[in-house]
Amino acid sequence: MDAWLIMRTERGRERPFQLTEGRATIGRSTRCDIRISLPNVADRQCEIHFDGKALRLRDLTNTRAALVNGQSVAEANLKSDDHVQIGPVEFVVRCSAESRAHEAVSPPADSNGSHPIKSVASAVDQRLPDALPPPRSAAG
Q1: Long-range pairs for 60-68: beta carbons < 8 A, 24 or more residues apart
Q2: Dihedrals phi, psi of 2, to nearest 5 degrees
Q3: What are phi and psi of 3, to 5 degrees?
Q4: Adjacent-strand bridge partners of 56
Q5: 34, 43, 59, 60, 119 from 24: Cα distances, Å
Q6: Chunked mean pLDDT (size 10), the chain, 140 residues
């Protein structure tokens, strides 16, 4: 099965991140697979384990700051159409084993036809302002 996290922006755009087998980390650190460079996101906020058949999210902060379908979780199994929120950024889970996944997602491929998560992770930093409201000033 193929698995994707689709980042939804305020402007209605979708940015796909294919999950490869193993663990993908999400957080503020440059070492994360998906980087969200915002002060209210932990250096390593959560990880998603994908074994090729199932997805499992684990919060790495012990604060249950990751939300799955609006619920604060320490760990959760993920399925297609689940909503994952990390700070103010929302992702939707899509899995190709479910019939609607390829209709809903048409991710860009590189010249080899692959979609490694590392190749698009840096794009989040450059494009993230599209996904978020303007930052609040320290005085406001």
Answers
A1: 60/25, 60/27
A2: -95, 145
A3: -130, 140
A4: 49, 77
A5: 7, 13, 12, 12, 13
A6: 88 88 95 92 95 95 89 95 93 75 44 41 43 44
